[in-house]
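Q: I'm teaching a short session on how sequence maps to structure, and I want students to see two examples side by side rather than one. Could you give me a first protein with its sequence written out and its structure tokens following it? Keep the formatting plain so it prints cleanly on a handout.
A: Of course. Example one:
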Amino acid sequence: MQQIKSYTNYQKFWYFAKPILLQHEAQNNLALGITLRAEHKPEQLKLGLVLFINGQASKVAIISAFHGGTLILSHTWELADLCILQDFLISNEVVLHGVVAKVGLSEEFAQSWIQYNSVSYELLHHTEMLVMEQLQSNTVTQYVLRQALDFNLKVVTEHCQQFLLDIYPQAPQDEIIASIDTVAQEFIAGRFGFILEDNSKNALGIIEIIRQTPNYQAISTVAVLPINRGKGYGRALITMICAQIFKSGKIPLLFVDKNNPLTMHLYYSLGFAAISETKHYIFKTAC
């Protein structure tokens, strides 16, 4: 017997979700990171869903606040599970603005979802999740990686804007500019945003640890301005942040866009390896 239960109470949801998400901690990094953060920022988790099979909690999904409501499926969901999930969401009139799941599952969900809703869908991101099990090199000595502080807001804002333009090339620039102040302030306020500097304290790039789970730290916001590209600063950023993560006793993890072969090559050359592949589809109201 299969049954889905929904939870808005963090503690009740976490009781069932914790062992399931931690079983595949790396592959569930996105869902796990959002769920952990919701303990202190409950607005980021709109709804927690647990699939029970014969009374046993088996699989977890969350609806995050990202893009107004994005469904994120844990690693163990299969195609056979989608029918009961969609029936639950439709019967409870849940509004979704996107879905993130492993390749194959996300497409199937999106195709089925539009049959019951007046929406269309399009691919936002096709990503690989990479982990680095061992640091290959830590010989960067000519640069300093330090925490971003309030007086760095201008530099951080400039780099965050470039980062958003790079990962959302089709997004209207006015939308990116409208959100950039918040992004830059959160980069600094989170205390896990870093700036790469040379010996003259010139800013060469930025990088951020965006999520932490028990054994992993997820890297994001790797940004080097176009004028500084091709000089090895991106490699230095990744090498130095990974050394810092390993020193803390955790494992570096990141997502890379499949449509960015140069960046993928950089990460692979540094020792990262792929462990999963996901697609993020967004739903748009049909005209």
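Q: Perfect. Now a second example for contrast.
A: Example two:
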Amino acid sequence: MKWNRQAYLTTTLIALVLASQGYFWWERTEMEKGQNTLIADLEQRDEELSLKHAVIKELSGKLAMTAEELTGTEDRLRGEKERNDAMEEQIDDLAGTVSDLDKLSKTDKELLQKYSKVYFLNEHYVPESLKDIEAKWKYSEDKELKIHSKVNSFFEDMLEDALDDEVELWVVSSYRSFYEQASLKGAYTVTYGSGANTFSADQGFSEHQLGTTIDFTTKGLNGGLAGFASTPAYTWMIENAHKYGFTLSYPDGNAYYVYEPWHWRFVGVDLASDLHRDDKHFYDLSQRDIDQYLLHIFD
């Protein structure tokens, strides 16, 4: 009985040892399977990651190419836009030039010529359009006086503003035809002889034939011209006439005629303002410089 128990215990112990070894073998086998499966999964994921990296790299390359192409396209578009803008500017300039040339072709080129013994207006010259000066602006209301129609609005604005400043100006002489000037000069010559040449132009050399020139008088002179330089009206004209395009033709010391403070010629706001700013007079400039103002004389 004692042997049988011992044999039983021995057999049981052997069985337990074998069982534990079997379990450990199974567990290790399962672990190896799990490990192999995990390794396989990791290898598969590495392959997938490698593939994704390759795809990403390929896409990055394509994106870089696309970005470069876009940059190139933007540069080309920008260059094309600049060329189009330049062409549009050229077209605008050309259109402006054509418009200016058309405007200039329709503007009387005589209006800014230096007459007064320099240029000659023939007996056939008459301004393109003349307008009767309103009675309220004339010293003698019944006297027929005319002015260039395109100058009239500047002229009336000037006299209206002068009145607002309590300065009264009246016209005693304006447009004179070639033959009216000849008759006037003839009368002066009879009275003053060659001395008439110092204050009266020969026919064809008078600014009055242009229809843009006015002789003014003011209160206290009884319609005369002498003494105009000493009046508030003259001071107002010196300070303001340029704003309306008028300038004094024959200042004191000029090379053509005696001092004529009453004699004002319309030359356009731009030219008159520049002359006033620079303290110059119309006949101080060259004809070339004056001609540059013709385009905008009535602007």
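Q: What should students look for in example two?
A: Point them to this: Strands lie at 130-132, 146-148, 170-173, 213-217, 246-248, 263-266. Also worth mentioning: The radius of gyration is 52 Å.
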